[in-house]
Amino acid sequence: MNTITVDSLSLSLNGLPVLKEISFAIEEGQAVGLLGSNGSGKTTLIKAIFGLRRFQRGRIEILGKPLDSFRAWNQIGYVPQRASVSLHATTVAEVVASGTLAHRPIGWIGSRERIRVMESLEIVDLANHANEAYLHLSGGQQQRVLIARGIVNRPAVIIMDEPFAGVDLTNQVKIAESLRGFAGTMVVVLHETMALSEILDRTLILREGRLIYDGPLTTDGHHGNHPTNPPERTHLLTGMEQTWSF
User: Fold this and answer.
1) Phi, psi angle pair for 160, to nearest 5°
2) Tens digits of residue pLDDT in 206-227
3) Domain that holds residue 133
């Protein structure tokens, strides 16, 4: 089954075309890198997939359902850029637990959610920081906390927006190690693929709103202007809650 299908997608903002006739399908379990320079349309494409940008033409399906009827958002994990997240007086565990708000009452957390929070922090090697202030961590550690939040619901799909931005090499390696065991579908917005070169099955490259390459990551890092094949007919950031401890 395809977890994400984008077919003939075109999107304009303020009358200017941003995405132009984009088509691809991502199969269950694939790890896909989405690359392109600033302004190529990567972020707009991700927002369109989440339903945060209205598109004029085309079709998006998630887990086999059209976007406008898709409701299983707890099956989608999202990891934003660290710089886009502003958190104050919030512990590491609370940040991760906020990822479970889609399927529980605000202000309440059960034992199952607490277990999942700690398991997610174990995966990113930060369980011993659970009750520390998120803002006191290094930039790389903060990004790993956001990854733990993204996987806390055991999603079928995880989408990450430039998880290596401003992250030192040591933490890039730790992030890559954390993601190696993820069994679901992974879409990662990147500027370069080095840290995830052993994980990615495939890369999509955007240029000026068009998909110019869809294929495997080559050994020399060069992709060229390869043709792409269309598929065969083929929110996420929530507020924090009251303090609790583990």
Assistant:
1) -120, 135
2) 999 999 999 998 654 444 444 4
3) 30-53+72-201
